[in-house]
Amino acid sequence: MADPLGTMLAFPPDKVKSLSPTQYDTKLHSYLASLEKLPPSVWTKSVDNKSLLELLDPAVNSIAYLKSLVNNVEAVGNKDRARLEELYDQTSIFFASFDPVQVRFVGNLWHMLWDWAIKCSSHFGLIDLSVLSTALLRLDPSSATFTTLHLSLVQQSLALGTPTQALPILDKNIFAYPQTLSKSVPAETVSDEHELSNAFITSESGFSEKVVPEHVLEYYLLGAHVYIGTRNYQRARLFLEHVILFPTQQHCTSTLQVEAFKKWILIGLLSEGKSFPYPRTVDAVVWKNIKSVAKAYDALADSFEKRDWQKYQAEMDVGAQIWADDGNTRLVAEAGHALVKYRVSDLQKTYAVLPVSRVAAHLGLSPEETLSTLTQMMSQESLNATLTQGATPEEGILQFHQPSLTATAPQSDLEAQTKRIETLIAAVRDADRRLQLTKEHVAVSKRNKSAAAPDAELADQMDLTWDAPGTSNGPNVGEDDEDIMS
Fold it and tell me: For the stretch 306-332, what's the b/e string if a residue is b when 16 or more beta carbons lie within 10 angstroms of its beta carbon?
């Protein structure tokens, strides 16, 4: 048994830091070939009454440890709960300490273990999913390349009723998807440092199942649910717009896009007091299709923006079954409560001081209910005012405060925004570099360069593209068309 253990401990070599990426890849592929020659039984056997998982270091011998761990998991099955719990603990240690460069070469094994861990956590009823998110972030600290594991983590966190467990992954922006590298593109060194993780998380790497549009739409829609639950409406809006703006063939409209639009309308009312402006890059046909099946929500938004509380209540009661079927009953009710608060906030546009009795008359509430509403708004910092108590609720005085004109964004917000911009620039730079390596880009660049040459025919330099009438992306296409020949 000493010989197999020696083979497992052969990597990494003593002077691994001095190896170039190409040398590292060569040695690791040779190491993997030597591991494949070992009989399967050695991975579950003991050496001197110690298991391989005790003799191997998950942070140093990550590949051998992972291979032994997967073999032990397959050998146990679902029979021995005590042994499963022990393996889950060892998996937790591995996911917190593995060498992220080594496991790039064994993505299938890493994926198998991650899948087992999420099923095991469900089987044991564990609500702490930090082991899984830690694993994803250790593999790819940016989490910028979407995988089906992203979706699985969000699904599991919602199924367990602990949506915040998915936030470490959801808070990371997606910049890329696993891609199939073209044969014309030179292969990249897997162990090298890359600005974007899709250099080693590809469709062939094993870290993800095949990504299809439904995976992406569901990820952003479920992610929006999480952010709505945590009252992070800005992030929820971004996720919902990702769904609404998702490109489709032949203007096909997904039911997930319709669902996203309905929630998009409601969180606009909650966070802004009005509907969000329509996304300028939306497909006009898709937008028309979505709005045609969501007219009830447009009616709600219209009543809300007019601050017509009674009409909003009537719309809410009439469409009760619609909101229930869509799972939006609570959001619609919250928007109703928000409408009252926005009606109070609108008063400061006209008045500086008002008695509570006047505010109550404006809202159509009793003085007691009005006083409670005002107190709640000020405690939540949604109303910048001072309330002076009177002998009775209606004798109280509400004094609005003028917003400060010198307020600036906190330094932390500016730093966070700067960091986001830097990350985006790096992602764009990497995407441009990859685009320039493709055969199609080289052909187009060559053709454009030839057409721009001084001795080129003028006819060859003309833009011969033609946009047919009515192909604009705006949602109001065709409404103001003119006959230019008249």
Answer: eeebeebeebbeebeebbeebebbebb
